[in-house]
């Protein structure tokens, strides 16, 4: 299983079908190119590309089943001839895209589709929904990783994500962005992401005492025991954990750590660290969870919290401070005619495009140019590459670990000033002369 199961081609807005019916009625099926990009967002200076694997998987096997065609017929909206066309429809187009794990910026196409008009139009909703969510969550996760400053982070978002699919996307996207693992067991099975988790407060309260709960857990999981210590009194919980940890040591086992889930974690983590150290358990780590995102992580670390690793859940899994991307999919060429939208505040760039990235001598990113596919920019690399040709994948898609490594390398090359959470420096993105001239004729 390479991606969450696709519900089928009826996962679509109705207007995709009504437009497709209109194109069919007027015999309009010339090759069309659509660009997928994100409009400027005041809370995000950069974005992380994600979701491409799912797109390629779905486009490769895109088709309407007999049952779906029968249901559309019963709506009474569409002609028998149009439904007959849909019944044979397959994606036969080309896709140019940025690699997953790439960093991109507002107005840059992260993907372009060229296909017969009906095919290119009818996949709009799926592309925006799939790429939009994955890029949104990968970007939020990247910000958390940056704030953690080298400390380990685990995805704890599953119980609060907005549905099963979103929970899977959160686990995959956060792993791309550098999270160490996930609590999501299905994501672990699906993508071989390390899984992580210990106990909830209900486990502690199920026993006669906190100590009994810790002892039961240590007996069952002597190599990975992490005790949740704030069910009653956090400092007493730390002392109880230390006592059990020392009994584990006598048996040849090692207490991995303790977890905080409430209270003033800066102060408590310092106090708990002292208790563990004085008990001879300096190796035991302090984990923390509860309401973390990039802003709270930054405050914790700046405040001197003695926390070794974090469980990051709800606020990452729903991208709480910026819960959507204004991702759009706009036609930029039809047949031999370049086209653009000129609505105020929503103008688009006509033409089939390429994104060029310049690099400084020190290896840091030094600015991007949005140009035409035939353009060249001295010393720059191109970011859009073929991933599908004539409806079939090009080459082999990278593994998730390769995507993760790609992101890590890219993120190191994005200077700190562009990563700041407040007053981030705008990354320089220009439009090439040829692309700018092309707009004047549209």
Counting DSSP H or I runs of 4 or more residues, the number of helices is 16
Sheet with the most strands: spatial strand order: 13-12-1-5-3-17-18
The CATH topology annotation of the largest domain reads as nicotinate phosphoribosyltransferase
User: Stretches where pLDDT falls below 50 for ≥5 residues?
Assistant: none
Q: Can you name the CATH architecture of the largest domain?
A: Alpha-Beta Barrel
The averaged pLDDT comes out at 96
Helix content: 25-40%
CATH superfamily heading of the largest domain: nicotinate phosphoribosyltransferase
* Number of separate strands: 19
Approximate shape: elongated
- CATH class category label of the largest domain: Alpha Beta
- Give the N-terminus to C-terminus distance in angstroms: 44 Å
Please compute the radius of gyration using only Cα atoms.
Answer: 25 Å
- Helices and strands: which structural class? alpha/beta
Q: How many distinct folded domains? A: 2
Overview of the structural elements:
- This protein is an alpha/beta fold and 442 residues long.
- It folds into two domains: 14-136 and 325-407 and 427-440, nicotinate phosphoribosyltransferase (Alpha-Beta Barrel), CATH 3.20.140; 197-312, Aldolase class I (TIM Barrel, Alpha-Beta Barrel), CATH 3.20.20.
- Helix content is 39%, strand content 18%.
- The protein is built from 16 helices and 19 strands.
- The protein has helices spanning 14-25, 52-60, 66-75, 80-87, 117-122, 124-148, 164-176, 185-191, 201-205, 210-220, 234-250, 265-278, 294-302, 314-317, 400-412, 433-440, and strands at 31-38, 47-48, 94-97, 103-104, 111-116, 152-155, 181-182, 226-228, 257-260, 285-288, 309-312, 327-334, 337-338, 353-359, 365-372, 380-382, 385-389, 392-393, 429-431.
- The chain has a seven-stranded antiparallel sheet with strand order 13-12-1-5-3-17-18. A six-stranded parallel sheet has the order 7-6-11-10-9-8. A four-stranded mixed sheet has the order 16-14-15-19.
- α3 packs antiparallel against α4 (80-87).
- It is elongated.
- The model has no long low-confidence stretch (mean pLDDT 96).
